Amino acid sequence: MRTMIQGGRIIDPARQMDVVADLFIAKGRIAGLGQPPDGFIADQVIAAHDRVVCPGLIDLCARLREPGQERKATIASESAAAAAGGITTLVCPPDTDPPIDEPAVVEWIRRRAKAAGQARVLTLGALTRRLRGERLAEMAALQDAGCVGVSDGGRPIANSRVLRRALEYAATFNLTVFLTPLDPDLGHGLAHEGQVAARLGLSGIPVAAETGSIARNLELVRDLGVRVHFGRLSSARAVDLIARAQADGLPVTADVAVHHLHLTEIDLIGFDSRCHVRPPLRSLRDKDALRAGVATGVLGAICSDHQPHEPDAKLAPFGDTEPGISGLDTLLALSLCLVRDEVLSLPAVIERLTWGPARILGLESGHLEVGAVADICIFDPAVEWRLEPGIIRSRGQNSPFAGWELQGRVVQTLLGGRTVFGD
């Protein structure tokens, strides 16, 4: 299939390109830009006038609930939601059931994703067996099976000796380690430790639960030289720690969940369980610092931190509800709000969703160079729409952004040159 995407605004942050031009695809790859290759005759033409054409989005953290939690969602259902949101690559953390600590689980997920055919699903292997923080997982075997990194899966390793051994082992195989910035002893709670939590009578999680963990882990990185990525930062002090480490030349990166760029602890008033997340929503100052961190590039990627839940999971009293937001449907639109708020330019937002996460993962994707796999998102930046629960394609309807007026909507998504979503 040969495709011509006609007259779109092509934004490719990897090459600092922002031009109105035609894009040509053949055999699932980019065949030309501006001028067609010799002898090119399009089998189909996609009109993209007044629309943005960019690399497919790469989401660094999306829980797809398979294997083990199929009642909440499936790889097929969430891959379809991702395609509708312009996301072509999903990174699945290892906290599945069973955890991704054996090659057989990696292969099972790969087969399920291939059968769904809606998005590329990459896996992070477990740092320790069963994610229990005790014995190291067979990282070499997980890497050979296709894992793009190893992770604590949201269950931080409390034992510093075990963590150091895990980091040493990962460094031996040149693996990037994805760590959760949380001290498990300080991290018990429901909300950001502050006046709002005190007023609502909710147990607080101090910022030190995040920064203390980061400080310890940075010292280990300094000793070992291992590449470490810190996922889902939530505080101003954490951004400062990462910025200083990067300035010192340490091989560390970090990301932020898109909801932390828009919501704060104030949104918990009324005990809105849709805003029950981990790490917790923090202060307005923290939100502003996270936005500044994305703007400067200290936070190199924006992710959805997608966690679909059944309706009942959010209907209990606040303290008994499950944390997490369904975020695939809104990742792009909420990120585009940063352009409206003059936090980032449009090319910079796209960079944090494509080339930025690709670099963190070490992938040869996230760009539109000739020869690259044609994973492409086409969206209309001018379309205004209202998020209603009925139009959320994920099986998880648990979004605090229901009712929000958003701008910018995906009209077509291509995976390897094949249309997987078309509005």
Task: Explain how this protein is built.
It is built from eleven helices and 19 strands. Strands 1, 2, 3, 4, 5, 17, 18 and 19 form an eight-stranded mixed sheet that branches. The chain has a six-stranded parallel sheet with strand order 9-10-11-14-15-16, sandwiched between helices. It has two domains: 2-52 and 373-381 and 404-422, Urease, subunit C, domain 1 (Roll); 56-361, Metal-dependent hydrolases (TIM Barrel, Alpha-Beta Barrel). The protein is globular and about 65 Å long. 28% of the residues lie in helices and 23% in strands. With 423 residues, it is α/β, with parallel strands linked by helices. α6 (208-224) packs parallel to α7.
Summarize the structure.
With 423 residues, the protein is of the alpha/beta class. The chain contains eleven helices and 19 strands. It has two domains: 2-52 and 373-381 and 404-422, Urease, subunit C, domain 1 (Roll); 56-361, Metal-dependent hydrolases (TIM Barrel, Alpha-Beta Barrel).
Observed structural traits:
Urease, subunit C, domain 1, globular, 8-stranded mixed β-sheet, 2 domains, 423 residues, TIM Barrel, 6-stranded parallel β-sheet, alpha/beta
Element layout with pairings:
Elements: E1 2-12, E2 17-26, E3 29-33, E4 44-47, E5 52-55, E6 57-59, H1 75-84, E7 87-92, H2 103-116, E8 120-123, E9 125-126, H3 139-145, E10 150-151, H4 160-172, E11 177-179, E12 191-192, H5 195-200, E13 204-205, H6 208-224, E14 228-230, H7 236-247, E15 252-257, H8 284-296, E16 301-303, H9 331-340, H10 346-353, H11 355-361, E17 376-386, E18 405-415, E19 418-422
Parallel strand pairs: 1-4, 1-5, 6-7, 7-8, 9-10, 10-11, 11-14, 12-13, 14-15, 15-16
Antiparallel strand pairs: 1-2, 2-3, 5-17, 17-18, 18-19
